[in-house]
């Protein structure tokens, strides 16, 4: 199971929501826990569902601070134990491996005067010591001085109180992979502060239940907290079939127009044949572009991780900002791809915050797949060969005719409505201007024709 925990520092901006969607789509986690949503529960529920987590529990923000949300997919059985402004405590039954364990999402108090109440909350819910228990979240505190760099020295008393509550609850730090800190503030060396405020802690039964777990500190391009990715087991991956189709994202590439010009100049034959050759060439170009995109995004994330692990001098902090901007730009290209998949103009002219945007895009492939059919005998069939044979028989019978001696009796009741003048206009050859005019008024991102080259291709080239 994969679990994401992140202090997002507010989800009121559409750009932040899009970044969250991109990350969740890339990781494909089963459970997500969001801290500091700064939204009402109804608002965060909409965002959670838009990200693909139909099931969930949401806690209102208080004014402009706080707000919690946990979402899970259908392959998880999650039941609520308790919740507050500081925590959501659930019991997870993982269908993938049949394991049951307890998970508490925690948000520690930012103000020192409220820390004692937050620690006592953990002590109060520590009522099932035999149950495997994981606590994960933003504790807003460090355990030792080496978990902080820059700024004022943390009070030893505060750190001692934090370590004491972990001891009282009989949980221990589960460690991490990635950069050492999870929170950062300040873009210049003189005011830069880094701390490890977010972590996971667990009791012995949980550690015994998941001996091969991994907790990663992920890189990101927004929020001052980094996401935590917990993986309790190896995931399974499935291969997806890809078919050629000209994608509007390619127009953002400097090499797109020269590539089209080169392919058109080297193609031979009739216009449809030349377009087919252009499509084949663009298909190969796309795969190279896609591989390069993966390498670019992966490289930017790795570069960001390496930079964040270095001493925060001004040059390094400036480079971090530059890498984040480049990473955001690559994600904008990915977002345009999802717009085209949705086949709707909801994101046009910058209005990108729609409720069912990703739902429509993700369901497009599902709508194009036939899972099963009912045959002539009322039996359900679902194998590929049986589906193909049944569909072939059905449409063969549908479009088969035994013939009629004369259609005259059928046509007697049909009144003519097409005049000779209208018929002449309909039979006229299309002119170049008419075709160009029709192409210009077509929606650029609607479904393409047989050649895979949509209206946006012809409008541009």
TrEMBL record:
InterPro entries: Endo/exonu/phosph_ase_sf, Endo/exonuclease/phosphatase
Domain Endonuclease/exonuclease/phosphatase: from-to ranges: 6-225
Source domain of life: Eukaryota
Organism annotation: Hibiscus trionum
Molecular-function annotations in GO: catalytic activity
Lineage per the UniProt record: Eukaryota, Viridiplantae, Streptophyta, Embryophyta, Tracheophyta
Listed name of the protein: Endonuclease/exonuclease/phosphatase domain-containing protein
């Amino acid at each position: 199971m994969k679990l994401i925990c992140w202090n997002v520092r507010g989800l009121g901006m559409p750009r932040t929501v899009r970044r969250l969607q991109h990350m969740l789509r890339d990781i494909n986690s089963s459970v997500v826990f969001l801290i500091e949503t700064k939204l009402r529960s109804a608002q965060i529920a909409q965002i959670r569902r838009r990200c693909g987590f139909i099931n969930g529990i949401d806690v209102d923000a208080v004014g402009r601070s706080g707000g919690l949300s946990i979402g899970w997919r259908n392959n998880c059985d999650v039941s609520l134990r308790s919740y507050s402004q500081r925590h959501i405590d659930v019991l997870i039954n993982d269908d993938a491996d049949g394991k049951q364990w307890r998970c508490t999402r925690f948000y520690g108090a930012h103000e020192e005067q409220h820390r004692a109440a937050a620690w006592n909350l953990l002590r109060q819910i520590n009522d099932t010591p035999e149950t495997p228990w994981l606590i994960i979240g933003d504790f807003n505190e460090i355990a030792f001085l080496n978990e902080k760099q820059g700024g004022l020295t943390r009070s030893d008393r505060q750190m001692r109180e934090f370590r004491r509550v972990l001891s009282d609850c009989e949980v221990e730090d589960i460690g991490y992979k990635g950069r050492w800190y999870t929170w950062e503030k300040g873009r210049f060396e003189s005011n830069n502060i880094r701390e490890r405020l977010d972590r996971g802690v667990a009791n012995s039964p949980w550690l015994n239940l998941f001996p091969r777990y991994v907790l990663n500190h992920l890189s990101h391009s927004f929020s001052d907290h980094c996401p935590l990715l917990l993986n309790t087991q190896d995931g399974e991956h499935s291969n997806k079939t890809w078919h050629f189709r000209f994608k509007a994202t390619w127009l953002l590439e400097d090499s797109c127009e020269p590539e089209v010009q080169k392919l058109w100049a080297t193609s031979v034959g009739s216009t449809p044949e030349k377009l087919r050759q252009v499509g084949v060439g663009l298909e190969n170009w796309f795969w190279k572009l896609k591989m390069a995109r993966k390498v670019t995004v992966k490289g930017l994330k790795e570069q960001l991780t390496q930079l964040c692990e270095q001493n925060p001098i001004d040059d390094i902090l400036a480079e971090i900002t530059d890498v984040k901007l480049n990473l955001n730009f690559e994600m904008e290209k990915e977002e345009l791809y999802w717009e085209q998949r949705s086949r709707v103009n909801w994101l046009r002219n910058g209005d990108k915050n729609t409720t069912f945007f990703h739902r429509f895009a993700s369901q497009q492939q599902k709508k194009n797949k036939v899972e099963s059919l009912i045959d002539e005998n009322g039996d359900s069939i679902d194998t590929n060969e049986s589906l193909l044979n049944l569909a072939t028989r059905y449409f063969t019978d549908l479009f088969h005719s035994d013939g009629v001696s004369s259609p005259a009796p059928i046509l007697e009741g049909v009144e003519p409505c097409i005049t000779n003048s209208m018929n002449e206009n309909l039979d006229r050859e299309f002119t170049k201007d008419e075709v160009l005019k029709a192409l210009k008024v077509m929606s650029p991102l609607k479904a393409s024709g047989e050649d895979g080259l949509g209206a946006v291709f012809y409008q541009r080239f």
